[in-house]
Write a structure and sequence with these properties.
Elements lengths: L15 E2 L5 E2 L6 E2 L27 E3 L17 E2 L3 E2 L6 E5 L3 E5 L4 E3 L1
Antiparallel strand pairs: 1-2, 2-3, 4-5, 4-9, 6-7, 7-8
């Protein structure tokens, strides 16, 4: 097994170094630098109020009181929300909050815990 990561183009495990930071795949002749982060243009990129990247399963903290339609009490600032799921749309965080149930939140009103 190779000490190098597999080729990002064809997933070949036979990548080798050409003497420097660049790796080469002998099967498809693809060259890449493993230090560079290759981002999928179709990937969902959601950031919190501080600009930190959020991922599925993260824990976030609500930054301000958020009114809930149909409930007399708001979600209080400082409420910790565990195991979030990221979605596409205006309210881009799906989660469950104790006492409220399933909710959709906007990422601009939370910060990563």
């Amino acid at each position: 097994m190779s000490e190098f990561p597999p080729c990002p183009k064809c997933q070949s495990e036979y990548a080798y170094s050409t003497g420097g930071p660049v790796l080469t795949c002998p099967e498809c002749a693809h060259e890449w630098n493993p230090a560079e982060i290759i981002e999928d243009p179709n990937a969902l990129v959601i950031k919190d109020a501080n600009g930190n990247l959020l991922q599925d399963g993260d824990t976030v903290v609500v930054l301000k009181n958020l009114p809930v339609k149909g409930s007399p009490q708001p979600i209080k600032a400082g409420t910790k929300v565990k195991n979030i799921r990221l979605t596409d749309g205006d309210h881009n965080i799906d989660c469950k909050i104790d006492g409220f149930g399933s909710m959709a939140l906007k990422s601009e009103f939370v910060r990563k815990a």
